[in-house]
Amino acid sequence: MDETGWPRLKVADWVDTRDTLHLWTQIVGKVRMAHAAPVNHWWHVTLYPSARGLTTTAVPYGSGAFDAEFDFIDHQLRLRTTDGRSRAVALEPKPVSVFYAQTMAALTELGVPTTIHAVPNEVEHAIPFAEDDTHAAYDPEAARTFWRQLLRAEQVISRLRTEFYGKASPVHFFWGAMDLAYTRFSGRIAPPHPGGAPNCPPSVMREGYSHELASCGFWPGGGEEGAFYAYAYPEPPGYADLAGLPAGARYDRAMGEYLLPYESVAGAPDPDAVLGAFLRSTFAGAAELAGWDHQTRTR
């Protein structure tokens, strides 16, 4: 398998695994949220692509710390503490209810007992984790390929971070919508967000969108092989009609954002250049139309 290119994975070929993995990441993300110090825009709850999968990074607990990492090479959820102890939960076909019980038990064994809001967010049918025997698929190769997609997307998005002088987020994985995201801010307060995400309180959205922003990222939907996206909040007049975007990019009026199918990037002669052009052009359009201060734009 080519480890240097853009890995290909049709959404239809792994949708059941995707939906199960989405819920597993919500469980682990909520564990981080239960212990990490709050950060504006919910940046304290995210996961991060690592050399083996997705990680919480170190989370404070007592006088030490712990971490949790989805290892998509050996297919284990690895739980480790700073006193040298560890536990592992196998990533294999199993119901969400079993994964949830095993993960909570492993944390308790490590001396990190954790209580979370054990119901998924931002999904239409929110089955409590302890009762979810429906989602149970796990294709190891598909999970590994998705992780490699996240790594490639992160590499390109991260190179753009140095171009912006203003406040900006890390490149991180939000388990609510199962997307890798990066956000820039103008510095101005935004109007209160109206909410609307399924099974997600409006207060969560208001905190996440408290300030004017332009965001982009990647998620396993919106295209045959997933899609890159870009949007602005609040959306400035004319943003839906930007010119000069890469081939395949389009504004989705129902979603209120630009989409560029993953396959349009991966199949291009220079995928990095195509994705970079999409991200730069959508941000430049948002900043110009909204009148962002020149000092917060780009090099």
TrEMBL record:
Superkingdom: Bacteria
This protein's name: Ava_C0101 and related proteins
